[in-house]
Amino acid sequence: MPTVLVSGSSHPALAQDVAHALGWPLGACAVERFPDGECSVRLDAPVRGADLFVLQALSAPVGEHLLELALIADAGHRAGAASVTAVVPYLGYARQDRRELGKEPLGARVVAELLSAGRVNRMVCLDLHSRAVEGCFLQPVEHTSMVPVLVEAVRQGLPPNSVVVSPDLGAVKRAEMFARPLGLPSAVIHKQRIGSDEVHTQGIIGDVKGRHVVLVDDMISTGGTLAAAVHAVLEAGAQPSVTVCAVHGLFVGAAKERLGALPLARVVVSDSVPPGPPLGFPVERVRCAPTLATVLRRLSFS
């Protein structure tokens, strides 16, 4: 069965990189805006009888990119595609996977239902905020991870007296996935979130004194969690330069100011979302195209 890969407007550079890694041509898909702001999609690639893969990172503006993905998927379905797979290197709303107060929506479920209505038959996701998000989707979710690739990127030039630190309890398993292949000890910071953009640390479980700290998380958003974590490890006697590694580098809100004021030795992220304006400090971006291409190649032959 033929396969077709097309790109939405959120991350065309990554789609081109994935197509190159697969040796596939990138199908033609035009995305424009009507004067009133409505999204106009035209799927020019021939998809009848084909397995259609649509690559779209759900980064900012998340709502626009989400609706665009659903429209492209619907266009593929109506054009006769045998199946439609959404390739989503970053899944927006994945952090809204539970209701803390009982007064909020279940955002991840709303996204899943919207994509189901858009005729998405299958999802390919990269390092979800929580694997529990898969339960929001009725369609199969292929989950793959950039952690092994990021581990090798961080390994280069890493001091021998390093320690891998999780900035909160939710990232403990990911920190262990880094620490184990690197042969390093791990530690965890106890964090209390005060608001959507404010974090307070309450102590560290593990020894960081005199060590080089590698802070590991799934994403860097506003930098509030990481800034609090850096201050906590420095107060606990860690070496005065810290390596930060995350899969998704969003760098939104006050991230530029917060991270720019920190003593960071390295900031390592994947290219799951497109780079924004210059941040004022160096960021190492690791290609995720080979990881995604491996999954797509396997699915295209299944």
How would you characterize this protein structure?
- The chain is of the alpha/beta class.
- The chain has 2 domains: 3-145 and 290-300, Rossmann fold, CATH 3.40.50.2020; 147-271, Rossmann fold.
- It is built from 8 helices and 14 strands.
- The chain has helices at 12-22, 62-78, 107-117, 147-155, 172-182, 224-235, 255-260, 289-300, and strands spanning 3-7, 29-33, 39-43, 51-55, 83-88, 122-126, 141-144, 162-166, 186-195, 198-205, 212-220, 242-249, 264-270, 284-286.
- The strands form 3 sheets. It has a 7-stranded mixed sheet. A 5-stranded parallel sheet has the order 1-4-5-6-7, sandwiched between helices.
- Helix 4 packs across helix 5 (172-182).
- The longest helix has 17 residues, at 62-78.
- The radius of gyration is 20 Å and the shape is elongated.
Give descriptors for this structure:
302 residues, seven-stranded mixed β-sheet, five-stranded parallel β-sheet, 14 strands, Rossmann fold, alpha/beta, elongated
